[in-house]
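#struct-help
A.M.: can someone run this one for me? Single chain, 87 residues.
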Amino acid sequence: MERIKDTAIGAPVKGRLIESLFISPTDWEQMTDFMNLRIRKGEETALIEFDNAGKSLSVYGVSVNNEFDVPRWDMTIMDNWELMMGN
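D.P.: on it. Structure tokens below:
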């Protein structure tokens, strides 16, 4: 995440400006478990436990979609960020 933040934040990816980055499971099915663990034990502990369990983690780019009455966070997986950024 540290390696790409200077390039990715503020850049358009798939038609949306990336506003922030976060690390989370690659498998969306595991996202709920990860988020609950993150709330209970903190982000660093959740990352360590998922990594130790051999679960794949990815960097996600977050953009805010204001097309609706309530802003929505859109998340884009950034695993192939070099291709997405045109590098």
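A.M.: thanks! DSSP finds four helices and five strands in the chain.
D.P.: also worth noting: The mean pLDDT is 85.
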